């Protein structure tokens, strides 16, 4: 676990270097963008003075080391657009994003397990074929199109929800469904396949011969063995939902981290861009670590397999 933790730290440092490098090689000068937002028709001297004050006239490696040292102390700098500490902005926006991600999490767990078990037990039935078509559509549909479709249907044609809403329980239903549908669709396909694979194994045949009801075999044994690939896929998608929620948040005018990240890019807000990339990368690696821990808890032999791989 210590080795895995050190690997994650190395990944985060690599991500921060790449993010900082790509942000700085852009042709748009953040000091000039900030000056033109603050001063009408600024002179070249004023732009140079602000560039020097912000430290953007120093070599890139010196800028990175200065930024990285501040990050280690929890200081991600000050946003050039909002003038707030970047960490405060990200924390506020992340709470809004986690609200819809949390609701999407409930939809995903509930529908993935139910639909996967149903389609595996009722293999090649009408229900299986219908769910297969729906899940393929769910995987194929772009999130922005699904979001617009849900808004048109349930906020305009049938005004059950508001077009622009934030704060109430009803306001998170449509965005969370939009986030959850593609992930439910992909997880159902994976979990169904692994359940079917486990149903054909000897331990299921042995349990059936002992007279154990199929419902009990599935809930106590088959699901436990079939879940690891789905858990890995699920937690990878949790990171994707948080980091890639910008499109859904834009459709529903949701003030989350994705919207903040997009606005930071458009406003050439370098501290906010670097802070967002680092936080999103941290979320990805933490989600992957959680998936690995849960898989080991579900199947302890995976820990031994990892040791064998390392020694091999």
Automatic annotation (TrEMBL):
Residues covered by the ABC transmembrane type-1 domain: 94-295
Segments traversing the membrane: 5-25, 94-121, 133-160, 172-191, 230-252, 272-298
UniProt topology in membrane: Multi-pass membrane protein
Superkingdom in the source lineage: Bacteria
Signal sequence interval, chain numbering: none
Stated family: Belongs to the binding-protein-dependent transport system permease family.
Protein name (record): ABC transporter permease
Sorted UniProt keywords: Cell membrane, Membrane, Transmembrane, Transmembrane helix, Transport
GO-annotated cellular components: plasma membrane
GO biological process, one term: transmembrane transport
Entry annotated with the keyword Coiled coil: no
SUPFAM superfamilies, A to Z: MetI-like (SSF161098)
Compartment list: Cell membrane
UniProt xrefs under InterPro entries: BPD_transp_1_N, MetI-like, MetI-like_sf
